[in-house]
Amino acid sequence: MTVADSRREEILAWLDEVKDPEVPVLSIRELGVLRDVEVSGDDVVVVMTPTYSGCPAMHAMEVDVVATLARHGVPNVRVKTVYAPAWTTDWISDEAKAKLAAYGIAPPARVEADELVPLRRRAPVACPYCHSVNTIVRSEFGSTACKAILFCNGCHQPFELFKAI
Amino acid sequence: MSGNRERTGNREQGTGNGDSTDGWVAGARPATATSGIVENPFFEYLLRVADDRLVLGHRLSEWCGHAPILEEDIALANIALDLIGQASLLLKLAGEVEGKGRTEDALAYFRDAIEFRNVQLVELPNGDFAATIVRQFLFDAWDVLVLERLTAASNQALAGIAAKALKEAKYHVRHTAEWVRMLGDGTAESHARTQRALDDLWPYTTELFLGDAIDAEAVASGSGVDVESIRPRWREMVEQVLGEATLTVPKDGFAPRGGRTGRHTEHLGRMLADMQSLARAHPGAAW
After folding, report:
1. Strand (E) or helix (H) holding A24
2. pLDDT at B4 over 80
């Protein structure tokens, strides 16, 4: 491992402190928004990709990246935004999905081959609170671009689903 | 061309030649318009892709706080957010391609109606919920086909934005197609309103499939879509959903056009007056 490699690993570990403000249980690394860190001497480029084209949390995350690294004594940080490959919920690990469920957000299923099947005609989603699959889609769109709103007939709780895209 | 809706209306630039179908009359073309002689065809092409999204996104955002049910209020605002986000990325790219230092905000807020390159379909007033849903469905079905092709664009930045937008567009069309089915195959009232909306909006869909030299050049460079070639697939998708919705596919006939070269309905100028007012009253405003 070269010096640059170990520096990169160190910076990636620090960036695990940066959470998505709208899903504060996941770090930007677990979410897949953090793509890479490029180290060249004192200059650090953090490569990020947005979840959705209009994600309003992106700016907050970029500011947070720069502030977090500044706290660790890394001053020359630039954020580079890339759009390809396009972000997918398939990048969220099983471990991170378990964190989402524990937080009360039903994790995304694997992205299906036929994306044009309406949400309400898909396999039922398990309630993150009582695990009942007797749930219904209340709204295909939710409080943020990445979520839908469901309702559990088992425990009579509304809950959010992380949309699979 | 006749009638009120398709006549060019513009707050500042005067009026277009209402009888011409291929551009502005000599001498009537404002210095800022790029229709006619085009300096940078790819910039022009990117404006077309971007402006459809910016204008439709703004129209949808007008529903925020006014939709018939809370879930649809959220849905329309979310779709608006996706479209405006896509427009922002595309206008940023367009500004870089133009190379004159214009940012995405400069292009969104400091162009007049005549400089917008969106199809007329997206600038029409929202009408009732049925009209908004029908327009959105007709656009979304087209948009999925356009974006699928742009993911293979030779311009890597455009291909990347398209791949991202395609995921969003598929979610949109799934949602709006479901609503068309529910409204069309719903009550007598919802059926009648949806059929009326379809009849009113159908003529404006022709423009989605009209290519010109700008499109041809983008296609030749490997970064464009031959819009005429996607029409059969679009019709197939649309007719299937309309059939399930018990709606009648209108006949093709009268077909307004001109948005791609800056000739718009009177509605766009009014919409922009609202959309651009803050940025123009307070240049450089930020939060």
Report:
1. strand A23-27
2. no
